[in-house]
Specification:
The protein is α/β, with parallel strands linked by helices. It is built from ten helices and twelve strands. The structure holds Isopentenyl phosphate. The site of Isopentenyl phosphate has 17 residues, from α3, α4, β7 and α7.
């Protein structure tokens, strides 16, 4: 039973302090993951990737041919990835880094070629692959941003995952009155309640996440760090999206 788990950038980093890991939340996440098997971890950019992307004007649709800009975004994401992998391995989890820039790309239609075979082989060999949002080569555009959420969707489908979890800075998806919505089965039903993204989140905020999770066959959940254990135990924290 394969689980795909996204650790939001706003959970594992301090979003307002440049390149700062949220030590408490990352610690809680790696502890919750200790001893779990058949799980793919994907983390977001938080205060590591997004400001570099914004600084260089690179987004999921706006590309760059500036190799220095690509390296600046990628190296920042690698630093965060190293912190996650080290944290996991410190708890005895057999985590291995997978950097999308080296193994993924987009075609001219924006279609993602995800590193499915790499991840499948790692899982089959008992490793825990740890991927991240990144900047990747994009046919005719140079390089564009790949969000962790898009990777979640692509890998969850390709691996036929049973459960998908998005561990976010909030305990679930809020309705207009600030209550967590327990179940979302259509975007239209919640469109008004979902605000836009904040300025430096170049990949789209909660509305984009919900849209993408609705595309999946697997049961998906959006929950906060306090719901991570429950999710990994097969329970239903936060908002169920399917
Ligand atoms: O935080 C974005 O990943 P996300 C990664 O999952 C970069 O949207 C490089 C900004």
């Amino acid at each position: 039973m394969t689980t795909v788990l996204k650790l939001g950038g706003s959970v594992i980093t301090e979003k307002d302090r440049t390149e700062t890991v949220d030590v408490a939340n990352l610690g809680a996440a790696v502890e919750a993951l200790a001893g779990r098997e058949d799980v793919v971890v994907i983390h977001g950019g938080g205060s590591f990737g997004h400001h570099h992307a914004a600084e260089h004007g690179v987004s999921t649709t706006e590309g760059t041919h500036d190799d220095e800009a690509v390296r600046a975004i990628h190296e920042a994401m690698k630093r965060l990835n190293a912190a996650v992998v080290e944290g996991l391995s410190g708890e005895g989890t057999p985590a291995l880094p997978v950097h999308p820039l080296s193994v993924a790309s987009r075609d001219a239609n924006g279609r993602l070629d995800a590193p499915t075979a790499h991840v499948e082989t790692m899982l089959a060999e008992g490793f825990v692959p740890v991927l991240h949002g990144d900047v990747i080569a994009h046919d005719e555009k140079g390089a564009t941003i790949l969000s962790g959420d898009e990777l979640v969707v692509a890998l969850a489908s390709a691996l036929d995952a049973d459960r998908v979890g998005v561990c976010s800075a909030v305990p679930g998806v809020y309705d207009e009155s600030g209550e967590v919505i327990s179940h979302i089965d259509s975007f239209e039903a919640v469109a008004d309640a979902l605000g836009g993204s904040d300025e430096t989140d170049v990949t789209g905020g909660m509305a984009g996440k919900v849209r993408q999770l609705l595309e999946l066959d697997a049961e998906a959940y959006v929950f906060g760090i306090d719901g991570l254990d429950a999710f990994l135990d097969g329970r239903q924290p936060g908002t169920r999206i399917d």
